[in-house]
């Protein structure tokens, strides 16, 4: 256990190091320069442009800029935002609660409805299964931002059941403002998890140990819970891990649709104005979430299936 964690933490550090270089390099090579935003599109003399580049160290060589930025990251600083002239860490931190709450609400919807629909389709069959397949096909074919625009137009603007934009004030008001965004964000992933749950449970339902349990008179509810669903948890948990990272990425579009004061909308705006320090910090944060979620899934596997040793999924067992 300790050896596995030590190895995975080293892998995490290596992945983040490579990702930091790639993220910084991609932003560095992107078209457009932040000094253009600082000037507001106005013309400037070469002397003024040189002064701005010097002030923000934009004229330093690539490796020098990367080394300075990496040193700031390792010491808990992520530089200063070009557009706000303020600490990137503070700006991202102030928007993080909205995004975390949105992802949390969406994840609850995905897990509850995705697993319930998959279970229903696998166990009931017939018309129920057909309904699940049709419903999940519609969900998988509807991008999050499209679902957001439709719900915003009809449920918020036309019927006035929910706020159409903004994050509200206070936690209770934030939850109210996030109802539509969380539904829009979760629809696609509900369809995906329902399909995976249905397929995994159907595979287990046909196995011999399920037939034996039923032949011994074990109640059907207990058969489904202990012998079918538990043995189908492997692909379900793996997919749930992928869904968490997918939700993190999808928040960018959904937050933009509902003008939420979250990290996703902040990233979208920062890309538009070439606010490189913000883009680099948020991109690195997303990579860290990817790696950590994968680590959590690996740690859960031995509890789901005791036959699987830690690290076996990577070919060690």
TrEMBL record:
Residues 96-297 form the ABC transmembrane type-1 domain. It is found in: Cell membrane. It comes from the Bacteria. GO terms for cellular component: plasma membrane. It is a multi-pass membrane protein. The chain crosses the membrane at residues 12-30, 99-120, 132-154, 174-194, 232-258, 278-301. GO terms for molecular function: dipeptide transmembrane transporter activity. The keyword Transmembrane applies. InterPro entries: BPD_transp_1_N, MetI-like, MetI-like_sf. Keywords: Cell membrane, Membrane, Transmembrane, Transmembrane helix, Transport. SUPFAM superfamilies: MetI-like. Its main location: membrane. Belongs to the binding-protein-dependent transport system permease family. This is ABC transporter permease. It comes from Actinomadura harenae.
